[in-house]
Every structure is written in structure tokens, then in C-alpha cells.
Amino acid sequence: MLCLGSGLARAQVCVTDDTDRQVCLGQPASRIIALSPGATELLFAAGAGEQVVGAVSFSDYPPAAEKLPRVGSYKRLDLEAVLALKPDLIVAWRSGNPMEQVERLQAMGVPVYHSEPRRFDNISTTLERLAVLAGTEAVGQGAADALRSGMDSLRQRYAEAEPVTVFYQVWEEPLMTVNNEHLISEAIQICGGVNVFGELASLAPKISREAVLAKDPEVIIAGGMGEDDPSWLEPWKQFSSLRAVQQNNLFFVAPSTLQRPTPQMLAGTRTLCSHLDTVRARD
């Protein structure tokens, strides 16, 4: 979307972010800082990788992102490091970043795009918007279309699938899951799964092992501390009364493919759907 700057005849580059704020730049951004690993991935996927000059810790995908200067963690920013990189756009994580620090950057005149995709179509929309801000519309549109097409295919494939009750473990200590407002829950739903904690109020609620035992899900799916670390599943094996344990329905999905709101979630959702197919075949 284009708008005209007040008092000037030159066109600005404008989009609306996930807080319904309009973000306008005088020209496409050339020095972008990403304040979450997910934002880093989204910018690269939107074709703006060459314009990204800084990122927070754990921004490890694609591999080129590992070489970027660090500006702190998503929980605590190094404002001096941010300002030293002279950004003309910051992409913030609305529910993850310390908002008092982000607001200080905005008060200093740095344009901030607040990202908070809650559904897969929001990821596609974010790719399109970031591409507009970076002047890489063709790449961003292609990535957005590919994600929409892939998710639509999965929705059609599993539209009539037999429901499977699912507990998704997003963290170990404290034990945490997701509710139905979370993107991971949409992935579960697309695959024909039913999130047993979907009705909880918090986006990522803390729960007890007793609560999981009471729900008795057909399958337990976990992320982990690493891309190939299914150790969070081991403690569940002691609970022989659980249906998921009795049928060996304990599965791992690499966290980067389901726990970041990026195009990688298409691969993660495919893996999740495959695991639920295995559960159905064992019934």
C-alpha cells in the first residue's frame, strides 16, 4: 500500500502492522534490525536478508543469520548496540520483547513494525508487508503464496480425518503447552488433532503433569531444547496409564519448525500430520 507524505509529493512506503498501527518509511528500508529469531527468518524469507544488519540471540536460520551482529536477547535488548547500527526499521515481537525498550526506540524516531502473527494467513500477510517495507515485493509475495498454497493443501487432505486428542509440550520446566489461540494449535487442528488444553485462557499456559494425566491424550508431541533432542518425552514413559504411552504415541517435532511463526511451520505441520497419521494407523 502506498500513501503520500504530508506536504510532500513523494510517495512513502506504508503498511499496517499487527497492532493496527501504520508504519511509513520515506523509502524502502536498507538497515533493518530483527528483535526475535522469528522476525529474522521472516525478513530473510521476504527477500530482505541483505538489508538485515542486526538480530537478537538464537537467530540461527537461515545460516546467514548466524553471522549478524547481536543486539541482546529478545527478552532484554542492548539499546546501545541497536542504535549503533543506525537502523531505519526495527521489526519487534509484540508479546515477546520488553515493550518499554521498544517504546524508547520509537520515541527516538526509529520506525518499528510490531509483528504478532496468530494464524498461518497472518504469517503470509507479514511476509507481504515486510517485503513492501524492504522493497522486495516479488520475493515476499512468492513466499506468502507458497505458504498459503501448502497450508490449503494440508487443510483439504485432513478435512475429514479422524480426530486425535493431542497434548503439545512447548516447555519442560515449568511444564507448558498452548491454547487454541496459538499458531501451534492451528497446526494441530489442520492435521485433524484436538488440543486437549485448547480452552485455557493463556496463550502458553503452565500446567501440571496431573492435568495431562487427567486429560489422557492419545498422543504427546514435544519440541525440545535443540533441533534433534527428544529428551522431554522420556519422563512421560513412567506414566503407563496414559494412552499415549501405552501405544508409544510420543513424538518429537523440531522446535524451529513449529515454535516460530515463519514459513518453516509448513514443514513442521507436515511432520505433525504424519505423526497423527501414525496414531490413527495404530488404533
UniProtKB/TrEMBL annotation:
UniProt keyword list: Signal
Entry-linked SUPFAM superfamilies: Helical backbone' metal receptor
InterPro entries linked: ABC_Transporter_SBP, ABC_transptr_periplasmic_BD, Vit_B12_bind_prot
PROSITE patterns assigned to the protein according to its UniProt record, in alphabetical order: FE_B12_PBP
Keyword match Signal: yes
Fe/B12 periplasmic-binding domain: residues covered: 31-283
NCBIfam families in the record: TroA_like (NF038402)
Protein name: Fe3+-hydroxamate ABC transporter periplasmic binding protein
UniProt lineage: Bacteria, Pseudomonadati, Pseudomonadota, Gammaproteobacteria, Oceanospirillales
